Amino acid sequence: MSAYIPENMEEVAVQVAKHQVHGEQVTPEEVIEQAVPDILQALLDEALEGRYDEVKRDGDKLIVTDAMGEQVGVVTPNGKSFVDDFKADSDALIGYLESQVAKLVGGR
Q1: For residue 107, what pLDDT band results from cuts at 50, 70 and 90?
Q2: Nearest to 56 by CA among 47, 48, 64
Q3: In this structure, which of 31, 36, 48, 90 has its CB flanked by the most CB atoms within 10 Å?
Q4: Minimal CA–CA distance to 31: which of 51, 16, 53, 47?
Q5: Mean pLDDT within 94-99
Q6: 22 and 29 in contact (C-beta within 8 Å)?
Q7: Hey, how many other C-beta atoms are within 10 angstroms of the C-beta on 74?
Q8: pLDDT in tens, 12-52
Q9: Distance CA 86, CA 89 (A)
Q10: Helices vs. strands in the chain: H and E counts, helices first
C-alpha cells in the first residue's frame, strides 16, 4: 500500500505530527477517517489493476461505485465505527477490508 496512507496507530501519530509541523491541527480520528476509505480504494485499485471503482464515505459507511457511477457495494464497520475498529486492531480491519474487496470484485 502507499506510504502516505497510515495503516496503524504509529503511522497515524506520524501523520498528525506532520500536519502540526505545517501549522494544521488534525486529530488522530480525522486521520483515521481519511485513511480507511483510502485503504479500501488502494485495495480495490490493486484487485482491479487500475482505478475502476470509487470509494466515498457516507457517515460511517463506505459506498463503492463502478466506472458508470452505479453502486456496487457498501462496506460497514465490524464494530461501532471504522475509527474504533482501526484503533482496536488496524491489521484486523485491513484484513476485513480485503475480504470485502474480494466479495465486491469476485462477482465480476
Answers
A1: low
A2: 64
A3: 36
A4: 16
A5: 98
A6: no
A7: 12
A8: 999 999 999 999 999 999 999 999 999 999 999 999 999 99
A9: 5
A10: 3, 3
